[in-house]
Design goal:
It comes from Streptomyces boncukensis. Helix content is about 30%, strand content about 30%.
Length: about 475
């Protein structure tokens, strides 16, 4: 039987030997040094009794030590839970509810109040190094990680990805790379990482970089274009909003980005006009990815693809009509996909799992079409969401919370474009009798419970909501009129 993930990661680090694979705080770290850090962290976790199936939360940044700890947690077969910045106290408490340990490299680690112990990253990395290749204890059927997104209740929902799924992923296997990924991998000489390596996107592009023979270069905070220039980065991840700011900055005060070869846009749609402007200013460097937390990457457009297109999906994708069957090319419908590393369902949410995962397919709840050449085009959403800084949030919790305010009789939330965050929440409110809602009060209410990203930045007072022919509130008309 083939070794489970992260066996391939250990192989990569071992093969790298003295070659630098990480640059952090102006210091280079070789494959052999990073593998030694993984050994120490794995030994440290085992000394604390961490083993297969145990929940381990990661409150970590982008250092080589953070990478080693995440890989080590997978070596011992743990269920890894990434904790992203910006969560409210209630949301963070929800994520940490059933983890045995929390590994932290930040000062607020001891204040997390998890149910288990808090392990300092430095302590794990100080464990003994026996020099022996770490023994991978992961079991195929165990959950390898929980990847969180916002849920319909306002609390994060967790997509459960098994070790079998992570082992089947194409990321670490060059022979399985789709054509677009193969083109991208050739440009990942120096990949700029920031935020947290517990992020699904950052870790997977980071692993792809290692598999391509590149170097991970850390930058926090990731000020563009300064960080790209300073670290001589050839590639990085970027949101639509940050891409727009970079393009504007290059127009007014150009930096030397001659070494830049790839910017991976993900998290929200890139409008054709923005794509053309970026190509005109930055050159042929923009790769536009489409994926979901539940599936990982679904498709990717290269700089050679027509703006607005998401390229040819390399995995199974069906566009289904109202009857549930596939529709011909050029016809809009809901997208259903199957990817090698997709999640098995939502952690401890069987009803929601049954709604989205069926017969091996994942219902994306996105609308789109395939053209006659097999290219994918998104045309809308079959769900009410807003994508802020590449993170997806449901509008339902926002509406329910707004409706609890004494000045609000009815509330509707829609996504609208925003130059700073990609999208933002626009609230349409029917005032309660003799009351006048104020944006500041409504923002404070939502931010305190759901986080700043969900707080409305615009408020429109309406007498009543327009209705669809079926008698339901027509939020598309609200958005169009707003």
């Amino acid at each position: 039987m083939a070794e489970q993930f992260p066996g391939d990661v250990l192989d990569l680090l071992e093969a790298a030997g003295d070659r630098p694979v990480f640059e952090h705080a102006e210091q280079a770290v070789s494959g052999a040094e990073l593998l030694a850090a993984v050994r120490r962290a794995a030994n440290g976790l085992r000394q604390h009794g961490v083993g297969p199936g145990d929940g381990v939360a990661m409150l970590l940044g982008v250092s080589p030590g953070a990478f080693a700890a995440i890989v080590a947690a997978h070596v011992v077969g743990a269920r890894v839970v990434g904790v992203r910045p910006g969560l409210t106290g209630r949301q963070r408490e929800h994520l940490l509810a059933d983890v045995a340990h929390t590994v932290a490299d930040r000062g607020d680690g001891p204040d997390l109040r998890p149910s288990g112990s808090v392990l300092a990253l430095d302590d794990l990395l100080s464990a003994a190094d026996d020099g022996v290749r770490p023994r991978v204890s992961a079991r195929p059927e165990d959950v390898a990680r929980l990847i969180h997104t916002s849920g319909s209740t306002g609390l994060p929902k967790a997509c459960a990805q098994t070790y079998a799924a992570m082992t089947a992923a194409w990321t670490l296997r060059p022979d399985a790379w789709p054509p677009a990924i193969r083109e991208l991998a050739a440009r990942l000489d120096r990949f700029l990482v920031f935020g947290t390596l517990a992020s699904q996107v950052m870790l997977e592009y980071g692993l792809l970089t290692l598999a391509a023979g590149g170097v991970l270069v850390t930058a926090d905070p990731p000020a563009f274009p300064e960080a790209l220039v300073r670290h001589r980065a050839t590639a990085s991840v970027i949101t639509v909003a940050r891409l727009a700011k970079l393009v504007a900055s290059q127009r007014t005060s150009p930096a030397d980005l001659g070494g830049l070869r790839a910017l991976m846009v993900s998290g929200s749609p890139l409008e054709p006009a923005r794509a053309r402007e970026a190509a005109a200013v930055l050159g042929p460097v923009v790769f536009h990815g489409y994926g979901q937390t539940e599936t990982g990457m679904i498709s990717m457009a290269t700089p050679r693809d027509e703006p607005g297109s998401l390229g040819v999906p390399p995995f199974d994708l069906e566009v289904r009509g109202p009857s549930g069957g596939p529709v011909p090319p050029g016809t809009d419908g809901e997208l259903f996909v199957r990817t090698p590393a997709q999640s098995s369902g939502y952690w401890r949410e069987p009803e929601l799992t049954d709604e989205v995962f069926a017969d091996g397919w994942v219902r994306t709840r996105d609308l789109g079409r395939l053209d006659t050449e097999g290219r994918l085009w998104l045309t809308g959403r079959a769900r009410d969401v807003v994508i802020v800084n590449a993170n997806l949030y449901y509008t339902g919790p926002v509406e329910r919370l707004l409706a609890t305010h004494p000045s609000v009789a009815e509330a509707y939330a829609v996504a609208v474009p925003d130059d700073s965050t990609g999208e933002t929440v626009h609230a349409f409110v029917v005032p309660a009798a003799d009351r006048t809602p104020h944006l500041g009060e409504l923002r404070a209410l939502v931010a305190a419970d759901l986080g700043e990203a969900c707080a409305p930045t615009r408020l429109t007072l309406i007498e009543e909501a327009p209705l669809t022919p079926a008698g339901k509130p027509d939020k598309r008309r609200l958005a169009a009129g707003g």
